[in-house]
Structures are given as structure tokens and as C-alpha cells.
Amino acid sequence: MTMHLHNTIAGPIKNRPFEAIANRCWVFEYALDEAGISLGYYRNQKSAGNKRLEFCQHPRDNRISLVAYDTISEKHQEQLKVRWGCPYEYVAKQPIRSLLTLDAKAEQYYRDYRYGGGKQLPPEHITKYTIAASWLNVLLKLKDDKAFIKKQLKISLETFWKLVMEVIVADSIDLPASYRNLTEQVRNWKAAAGNDRYDSLIDWRFGNKLSAKIGKTEAGFDADLELKQMAVINKLSRLHMNLDAVQIADMAKKIFEKNGWATISASLVKLRLNENMTTLMPGRQGARAYNNKVAMQVQRERPQYPLHYLTMDGWTVELLYQDGSTYNNRLVMVVVLDVMNNYPVGYAIGERENTDLIRMALRNTLLHIQELTGAMHRPWQLQSDRYGLKSLTPFYNAISHLYTPAAVGNAKSKVVEPYFKYLNKKYCQLQFNWSGFNITAKKGNQPNTEFLDKIKTNFPTKEGVVAQIEAFMQKERAAKVPTYMAQWQLMPADDKVAIPDADALMIHGQLHKELNSITGPGLIATLDGQKMTFDSFEPEFRALQFSTKFKLVYDANDFSQVVAITEDGKQKFLLHNKLKVGMGYKNTTPEQLAYRAQIDAYNKDRKEEILQKYIDEDAIVQQVIANTPLNLDDQDEAALKLMFTYKGQQKEKLQDAKGLKNVQKSIEKTKAKEAKKAGDNWQQMQALYLQEQTNINEYLD
């Protein structure tokens, strides 16, 4: 019940709820309005001369219209009782209430009161404390003037105090409702002086240490004791068992008693628990609860264009199907949502959420993007929960520029979960096989399970529910695709990044279980019963011929190319299905000729690279040998030096060492011959190269 100062302390007549006039209880419009009863109804009935209802004007102010309580309907009487209590009891206590006069000094004191760095008392507490102070003034005066009670009120002292306590309860006055405690507070009020009286009514929450329950001793408030007691309470409050106030108070009581401290109530613990919950929550409910409920949240803005931010999650669709023996079966749908306008850009339906279903949903995403835009485009950012994170992360990275898993315990980071609630309410709830909201929803919002049990034999099959889901997802897309495509047209061209063929195959394709190696013809594999040869013009791929095996990812509907992934997963290559070239002129097409020329050019480039590698390494070896102190008188060391010598660059030194005639170097001449005589025949080139590097006969001159 909200306490209004003017209703309790000599205020305007019109703001009273009831009054006894000529031994009848009359109701003010204020009481009707507070009880939620239409004032217009009674005013109209009075104007119409309703004979059932009795009206009168207040004897002291004829502008105020009253209606007799015993003439109004039972329904409206009950509404008045709910709001005000029994009207007859209210008017019976009116003489007691009329004794009250406002303590203006108390009201001003509470208005001016400041605590905790300039904080003011809440308005309702100003009113509450003022009323309590005003009543204590009255009771203090009458406690010493018993004759007034007997002569003027014409009641006994016992009846007076009984009525006072009933008023205290009925009007929610912040005073004790027992005679002993109430009279004790009146005595304390008399003993206090000046503002100490007013301070004694202020709750400890508003900086009044005199009223503090924590840190209280016989000598008064003790700050050090408060620190110790609060440490005990907070420790119990933040335990992982998530104890309630009663349990905390019971456990704290034992410690308090052992230390001779005044015990505390569960209500006080509950109050402190709520006040300190921001610091207690990590211990009581964990970091997730703290992050979601207490930690400062980031307000996010939806992206302006498609594919800037996609999020995905799995949902158990609330539609039941039968499989011949059970009737409570449900399917799972993984949805990929473009949060620009909550467009379901991809989805997949299955019996349970797993990595395969997630892959299917993302494949559907890129195929649908291709359907809408004419090409597969890479999303800029993709977010998901952490399900299958280790195995799916490479897949996520192949699809998006940036993959960001949701932080552990941060449910608010995902917008897809509220979307599922929206789908459930907009589409699923309208179906006769709807299973309801999740288990945490209110029971009143759930379907009639008894009726569901009666009609379960009419539930659709699994295929039927798939059709239901497909139907409402297509409706979702149809409703949102105009906005989606309009923003796509406005999207900057640089933001539209097509996915390379290799990455597209990684998304579409399926993994070939066997490992394959490179041979001279290429990488030979049998896919879906067909033996095929794949190759690549990337030198890095061919360089792995003798060191690496490959896993293949292929599209069963298109064998024109595959992705070869090294066994360690660190490299991948896009391979083409090798074109066969005709043996003779007549069965060779221009395309085959061009392909053969491409192979020849590739081989020639690789051979030249190898020759250049030989030359570069020989130059390095020459420097190494020149700086190596070999003993040429030793036959083995002399042979070793001869083995590493090329182009006659060491010949002269060897001849000098052996006492043979000098021979001029011919390095530049040898280089010219090498470049001139390099032909198409690989064996001839190799032989020529080796022959012209070192002429053994010259060593024997």
C-alpha cells in the first residue's frame, strides 16, 4: 500500500477514502479511483438518478460527492476492500486518525537529510518517517494525558492502544505493531533530544549507524565489527552452493554466537544479499552469469549490407512427428542468419545437430548466395557457438574472411537464438503438431498435452515435418529477400568478394578417404568408381612428388577439378582433370595441341630451373672447397677435391700441385657453349652439361 502524507495527516477532505456520516459509511471518489473503479460510471449514474445508489454532498464541502458504501455493487465493494481493507473498520478508527497532526519540522529535516556523498532520501521514505514521527508525538502526548483518552475519546486505555496498533497495521505506518515494542519506542522518543529523535527513525541503509543491525554493540556502532560480520556474511553468500538468505543466516548465527555478537535475521541477510549481488554473483552463479547479468554490455548496431556479419546456431524445431512407434520426435535445424535484416541465408535439417549438419547449412548458404547474386561470395564475418570448434574451424575459415566463435558463456553475443523464438511463435505455434516453447517457458503458454496425446496418431511423418519447415523457411526468405537484395545493390563493389574455386570445393566437396601420391602422369585416384588423373601446373605441387601424400576433396557432380590437401593439412592445391591428347595428327584437337604445348612449356621451365639450380649450387660448392684445407698428396682427398671441381676453375691449382703444365681457365667460354648447345633432348643436355663442366683428359696432360 502506497502511503500518501496528505491522506493520513490532516489533508484536503477530498483525499479521504471513507467517512462516517449519520452512522453510515460513505465512499469518496478518491477511494474509488485508487481501487481502479471508474469515476465516470458513478457520475453518470448520479446524473441519471439511479435509485439503487445513494449519493450525498459532504457536509463541510458540498462540492464533494459521496456514495453510500452499502448501496454499491458487491464487485466494487470487493475492489475497495482489496485496496483499503474493510471500510467499516476504517471509519471506526477515524477518531484515532483525526488525532494526528503533521510534524512540519520532521518533514523538513527528512527533506534536508543527506548521506553517502550527498544522496537524498527517497520521497516515499520522507513521507514514511514524517508520519511515524507525527504519530510518536501524538502517542507521547496521550501517554501522559490519560484523561483525554477517557473523557474525549470515551474509550479505555486498553481499547485506545488496540485501535492505535490496528491503525498502524492498516495504514502501514513504520512503527511497531505490538504494545510492548510500541510503548518502548515512545519512551525512547521521549528520552531522545533534538534531531536524534528524527535520526532514530532513519534506516541504516541511508547512513544511520544508530539503526544499523550489523556492527551493533551495547556501546553503539562499531565499524571494525561491521567489517568482520559483513566478511562472514559475504563469504557465505558467494559460496558456489548458492545459499538463500535463511541458510546464510542460520550458518552465520553459529559464528556470531561463538563470538558473542548479536545475531541477525534472514530478512537482513536478504537485504544485504541483494545490495551486494553484483560482487557476489561470480561466486554464486559463475562468470557466465556475471558476464550476462552484471558486466557492462556493448550495444551493437546491425550491419548496413548483406554478408557483413552472419551468425549460426542449431534449434530443435518444436514440431512433433511419428515414426511408427514413438510420437514425440523432433528435428533439428541449423540456421545461418544474416543479421542485416535477419535473413535466413542458409539452413539444413537433420535428426540431430552435428558437424555434418553444420557443414550442410553453410553449403546451403553459399549455394543460396550464388542463386541470389550469380556467384559464391565470401561473408566478411561468421559467428557460431563453440560446438565442434576444433574440427570445424578450418571449414569456417575457408568460408569467411573472419571467423569469431562466441565467447564462452556469452549468450548475448548471438542474435540467432531470439530468432528461433520468433520462428516458433510465428510459424510452429500455428501447426497442430506444435510441441510448445522451451522447458523454461511458463506452463500457461504451453499447448494442451492431453489433447496432443489424443491426436498423436495424426502427427505427420519425418518427411511431413521437413516439408512444414521448408515451407515456413521459404516464406521467411520471400518476405525478406526484397530488402536483402536492395541492400546488395547498394553494397560497395569492393565488399563483394567471390570465393576461389579451391575454397568453393572445400565447402561443396566430399572427402576421398584414401591417400594418393604424385606420379609422372599426375595424381591418379579412383573416385566413385572412376579412375581419373589429376594434375597442376603449380611447381610447388609437383615438388612434393616423393615426399607427400594427399587427401582429395571433390564434387561428385563435377570431376573437372579437385582439391588436393597435403596429409598434414598445411597446403592445398586445385588440380584439373588431366586432358588426354590424341596419339596422331588426325585424332588431336586444337585444344589438345594447346594443352600439350602447355605441358612442354611447363617441363622446359622446370628443366631450366633445375640447370640453374645446379649452376648456383656448384658456385657455392666451389667457395666451400676453396676454403677447405684438403691434402692433395692424399689420394682420397685429391679425388674429393676433383669431384667437387667444375668448369676447370680448380684445374690450374691441381696442375700446380702435381707439377703439371698450366692450363688457362675457360669459364666464360664454357657458359657460352652451354647456352648455345642446350637442346630439346633432356638426356643430351644432361650429358653435354656434364661433359663440358670437367674435361678429365686435361688433367692427364
Write the layout of secondary structure elements.
Elements (H helix, E strand, L loop, with lengths): L4 H4 L9 E4 L2 E5 H6 L4 H10 L6 E4 L2 E8 L5 H11 L2 H6 L1 H4 L6 H9 L1 E2 L3 E2 L2 H21 L2 H6 L5 H14 L8 H13 L3 H7 L14 E2 L2 E2 L1 H15 L7 H14 L7 H10 L1 H9 L1 H7 L16 E7 L15 E7 L4 E8 L4 H19 L7 E4 L4 H11 L2 E4 L10 H11 L22 H6 L7 H29 L10 H8 L1 E7 L6 E5 L2 E6 L3 H4 L7 E6 L2 E9 L5 E6 L12 H37 L8 H9 L7 H8 L8 H11 L4 H12 L2 H4 L2
Parallel strand pairs: 9-12, 12-13
Antiparallel strand pairs: 1-2, 2-4, 3-4, 5-6, 7-8, 9-10, 10-11, 14-17, 15-16, 16-19, 17-18, 18-19
Helix pairs in contact: 7-8, 8-11, 13-14, 14-15, 16-17, 28-29
Which descriptors apply to this entry?
701 residues; 48% helix; 5-stranded mixed β-sheet; disordered C terminus; 6-stranded antiparallel β-sheet; alpha+beta
Question: Can you describe this structure?
Answer:
By secondary structure, the protein is an alpha+beta fold. 48% of the residues lie in helices and 14% in strands. It is built from 30 helices and 19 strands. The strands form 5 sheets. It has a 6-stranded antiparallel β-sheet, covered by helices on one side. A hairpin with a 5-residue loop joins strand 18 and strand 19. Helix 16 runs antiparallel to helix 17. The radius of gyration is 47 Å and the shape is elongated.
